[in-house]
Design goal:
170 residues; mainly beta; Elongation Factor Tu (Ef-tu), domain 3; SH3 type barrels; 2 domains; six-stranded antiparallel barrel; four-stranded mixed beta sheet; 13 strands; elongated
Length: 170
């Protein structure tokens, strides 16, 4: 049987055996209608029947036969699958490119700290896009949002930002 990865599990939630699950956007509706999913355990896809789903963003899922946190612990950080036959062929699974993906290679300049560095990569995180910038021998993540971006100068390939104090020290 062919399978399609639709997301991944995160950490357990609470003491009743619930687990947080992230589902990729194109598959959310299919997941919410599913009665079971498959997790890869020791190299084999094993079915887990869904008892309940709640929450938004990270969904909190309760599986049948998982009653306590200790039973859910081995299910953390696992890819989530559905049989490929259950995914509609006309489903648009293309993910939109991050809004600021074109800023890779731009120089970030903070109003207070001055030149920070070149954006090595733009990550599309669940709540916002983040610029990955090498800074003082390590990588820092800087949120790319309208609160911090003052101006984008495409001709000079520079992003002027007003970063909160202490952000570069995190």
């Amino acid at each position: 049987m062919e399978y399609t990865q639709i997301g991944f599990t995160r950490k357990t939630h609470g003491i009743a055996g619930e687990i947080k699950i992230v589902i990729e956007e194109p598959y959310e509706d299919i997941f919410l209608e599913a009665d079971r999913i498959f997790l890869e355990i020791k190299g084999a896809k094993q079915p887990f029947f869904i008892e309940s789903i709640r929450g938004a963003g990270d969904l909190i899922v309760k599986f049948e036969d998982i009653k306590v946190r200790e039973e859910a612990l081995p299910l953390q950080s696992k890819p989530v699958f559905l049989p490929a036959a259950e995914i509609p062929e006309d489903l648009d699974t293309s993910m939109p490119e991050p809004e600021h993906a074109g800023l890779t290679g731009y120089l970030v300049v903070d109003r207070t700290a001055g030149e920070i560095g070149l954006i090595a990569e733009v990550l599309d995180m669940p709540r916002q896009e983040m610029a990955v910038i090498p800074y003082n021998g390590r990588e820092v993540l800087i949120p790319l949002n309208e609160q911090f971006i003052q101006k984008i100068d495409h001709a000079a390939r520079r992003v002027l930002m007003d970063l909160p104090e202490g952000l570069l020290g995190l």
